[in-house]
């Protein structure tokens, strides 16, 4: 049989915390040594770190190797395409290097995708747990070591014999433990789903409470292991890093980690699909929630050769199960106002359980969707939780009677100002409140955004705190943050004491002169401009900082560079920096001492995601000697031959070309798979611009 099924014994114990006795005898050190059920002090993990003073914020720690996300797939065809990409890449790699000379075939490991919280565990050369770090943004995460040591987490051995090593896995709460947890919490304090409960529990401020949350850990990756030195006869003296994912899973089980309940080594695509169908049919009987299957290249050598993008490994994908559905009553359609004034309809639902989560709201996207579905309050609706994440209404199952479609608001639900449609009459999907400075919802959204982690990264300033500050008249614009005093917070804002007031003011003050310019630009909230585009803008703004912001419009270089970002982006930037309110906001921030750190012309030190900046930026210096020198290329849709869009952008750049976002008369050719229509493709045909297939592009890049 081509597929080698693995199903280690994995049974939750009845009546007490821990793995079943049969597994427990085989791995006597499987339970957490700090569990109440483990009383032998000699087997406990060192608790030296438990004496550290706690703070309300977990320290950020850089990952030794980035904890990348997985690219999601939702169809069998996507899995088949992934297998073909891997096989093709492996053949190409063998032609170029010798690392795969001894491997004649490629195999895959299919394993469960646990719906939990990713965690990296570092073990020292004595085999003791040294540090526990959450995934975070992939580059750095939060140090939750103290909580892990105190948390009585099932599936963690007291020590290992293969340190130093890094073990990665998922923290979760089993179905049985989640039911017990909610039963103890009571209806009013119950958790909505196991994943949220696990995530919140792992970052509780009191480590002693973590043990009551019934957490478990399932290991799925082993890295950087080497022989352990020492006199202990139980320690391995010949262990080396695993050569395959299958070997890694086996070693993890031998070391006492909770074993993966179901996994398989697959040699053909049909083996993977067989495993997927098997798990689909038995999913309800698993002891914990899963939201898909992870398919990885088994051989570590092939993994290294395939590499990763800045976001995903090329050697693994996550097959996400089809959406779950539920039927419930539409209680109301409410309207939210974004920081840019966009009015977004949201469905308020009678609570319904879908895919292990309690759903009370669903996205309606825009007003055209309301009209298409013919929605009105009281309708019985079908709700889909797509990819186990985002709920949306897909159909009306029972109507309340005569249809009088839910009325589109004529005025802003917050400030009562007149609303205007974006675009022309035929494409009216976006309704906007134009009262930018006078709308409380927009002001609140802008202030929250300014302080957010993606922008100025000011700790302890969330939506609730901003609401309190606005209500007390202390903050109405970003510069007001820097005018706050500790004594004012204590005397005027409910809930603030000496310690919390000092913490907030310190956090705000520390951002005054330490944030890079691109973060400052993100914080301003230019419509349609994210982190990557802001990093581009920062290089242009820095050159003319002495004329920022009012004098930029007089600089030809500024105008030229912004226009190269595409017509829509350029229009948004020019309009934004021409707005008197924006200029006043910037002047006020500079007046209170906010001093962004300007980027060095020789360094990327202020850019958080260098890979994102280098590969994702849309403006590039041209290679004057490359075979694509001077060519402008537009990509429409997915390419699908093993390279991501960013990979292609970088390759084209290396060959002297430029990838742009907009089709114009200056475009040399458009790349499209031709299997679906797009605005870019239609525009190319209108202008008579050549359209090439991904296969033709691949040949062009390969022969260049």
Mean pLDDT: 79
Rg, Cα atoms, Å: 28 Å
Which architecture name of the largest domain does CATH use? Answer: 2-Layer Sandwich
Portion of residues in helices?
Answer: 25-40%
Q: How much strand content do the residues show?
A: 15-25%
> How many beta-strand runs?
23
Query: What general outline do the C-alpha atoms trace?
Result: globular
How many domains make up the 3D coordinates? Answer: 5
- Main β sheet profile: 7 strands, antiparallel
Instruction: Report how far the terminal alpha carbons are from each other.
Output: 43 Å
CATH topology of the largest domain: D-amino Acid Aminotransferase, Chain A, domain 1
Low-pLDDT stretches: 11-56, 97-103, 227-239, 601-625
The fourth-level CATH homologous superfamily of the largest domain is DNA ligase/mRNA capping enzyme
Quick one: CATH class of the largest domain? Alpha Beta
Q: Which structural class do you get from the secondary structure elements? A: alpha+beta
Q: How many distinct helices?
A: 23
